Amino acid sequence: PTTKCKNLTANLSVNGSVTVTTTSINNGSFDNCSFTQTLTPNTFGCGNVGTNNVILRSTDASGNTSTCSAIVTVKDVNAPNALCKNATIYVNDAGNATLTTSHINNGSSDACGISTMTLSKTQFNCSDLPGSSQTVTLTLKDVNNNTSSCNAQVTTKDNLAPTAVCQNTTVTLSNGSVTVY
What we know:
The chain is 4% helix and 41% strand. The chain is mostly beta strands.
C-alpha cells in the first residue's frame, strides 16, 4: 500500500486524555486491494502536551506494509474545575485574620494539575466586622496556563472576649456620694 500522512492537532478531553484515529492522520493512503491501518501511539495524556511523532502503518490483505510519520500536537484547552465554599474566619488578639486558599477551596481539580491558586483578598481585620460577608475570588491556573475562578462569601468574626483591666483607686465623698469612672 501507499501510506500518506497529515499532521493533526488534538485537544485533551476534560479527563486529560485523547485518542487519535487512523482516519485523522490518513491523508489519502491507497492500495490496489483492501488494507487496514494502525497508528502508534494513538492515545495521549497530560504528559504528551506538545508535539508527538506518530507512525501510521498500512497493511494489505497479502501482508505488504508501508508507513509514514506525522506529528500530533496535543493541547490542553480545558480550564480547571474551580469549586468554592463559603468561609468564616476569626480575628486574632491583634485584630487580624488571614484567609488561605484552604479556607474556600472545595475540591477544585484539573486533570493535568493545578499550578497556582490565588485569592483576591487574604487579609482581614476589625474593620471587616461585625460579620457581614465579603466576596472573595479564588483563581486557579493549571500547568498548561488555563485559568478559571469561583467566588465565596467570607465572614469575619471576633470570638475573643475583651480583657478588663482594673485598678484600685481612692475617692473622696462629696455630699455623701461620688461618681467613679
